[in-house]
Amino acid sequence: MIESREYPFLPVTLEVRNFHDSVPAFVDTGFDGFLILPDRYLPQLGPPDFVGRWTLADGSTVEAAEFRGALRIEGLQPLVQARITCLGTEVILGRAVVDRFSVTFDHGQRIIAAE
Question: What are the structural domain ranges in the chain?
């Protein structure tokens, strides 16, 4: 179990090829993907494995670099194989990851995640 008082963020460790990093990720229950990283990660990750089309909240469509990778919510055991997308300026953790765990949003104060 992990308890994060950095609401609404969970600490995530990610791996793409030889690149590893630990980052706080905004938990977005309206995002059904795995993980979005800011564009600034592109030089460190190298050429993308895919280029995906994304429809944004305003209805516009953009293309984004996508990578095969893995991530772990720090403090929890499972390593999740993930499609990691570089888009925008925020680190966003989606439901393709959080739905694998029991996640409690505690009155805007903390997030508790457990296997």
Answer: 2-114
Q: What is the DSSP letter of 39?
A: G
Is the peptide bond prior to 8 cis by the omega test (within 30 degrees of 0)? yes
Longest pairwise C-alpha distance within the chain: 41
- Of the candidates 29, 20, 31, 25, the one whose C-alpha atom is nearest the C-alpha of residue 10 is 25
Per-residue model confidence as pLDDT tens digits over 1-56: 999 999 999 999 999 999 999 999 999 999 999 999 999 999 999 999 999 999 98
Residue 96, CA distances (Å) to 1, 24, 55 in order: 19, 17, 17
* Options 1.25.40.10, 3.40.50.2000, 3.40.50.1100, 2.40.70.10; CATH of 2-114: 2.40.70.10
- CB within 8 Å of 57: residues ≥ 6 apart: none
